[in-house]
Amino acid sequence: MLFSGERRTGRPVSDRKLYLSRSKRRWRPRTATACRRHRHPAKTCCMETIITRPYASPCGPLLLGCLGERLCLCDWALPERIGRTRRRLLRQGVTGYADGTSPVLDEAARQLDAYFDGGRRCFDVPLHLLGTDFQLRVWKALLLIPYGATQTYGDLARRLGMGHGAQAVGAAVGANALAVFVPCHRVVGRGGALTGFAGGLGAKSRLLRLEAESAGRGGREG
Description:
With 222 residues, the protein is an alpha/beta fold. It is built from eight helices and six strands, in the order ααβββαβααβααβα. The protein has helices at residues 6-9, 13-27, 79-91, 103-116, 133-142, 153-159, 166-174, 201-217; strands at residues 50-57, 60-67, 70-76, 97-99, 151-152, 187-188.
């Protein structure tokens, strides 16, 4: 009996068996302690489902999600946006979404309530950023933009050492799935123009106005 691929390889039977065995091992589901592709612990990468719950914000519906004890999702619950974010996170190794509750989701909702009431300026929910190395650099830079302030895409690119990389930076900003917690709404176009925003320009304008008014009368830092 011929093994599959025998005529292509011409290997002796013993070598073919070894080749097939290695092939099967290579495609076996990964259950090791680390994901070889993403270099993250498997329990926080390829082996987990994101637990989600909805959150009704004054600026539009949001979907909160966590991996373990860290928040990884606070995204605008718009059909096209949800599908795009889900596909990206699946490529990062997440196995899917499941409705549920958790202490970190409840705490995130409480802190969002305080933020939208104008009484909270920063968050202390532990975050899990899921993205490429470049996206992570951009998102961490967003965390440095002060409450009530804005920065242009060009300025953000220059801060990252990418003088002519405003377009690439803009794409990474647009992929941010932790809206409000990672404040992508504070990035504006040249001259302060409001540009594309996953939650819509109305939501972006409202978030900036909320922060400007709260900063003017003095809000709570944490």
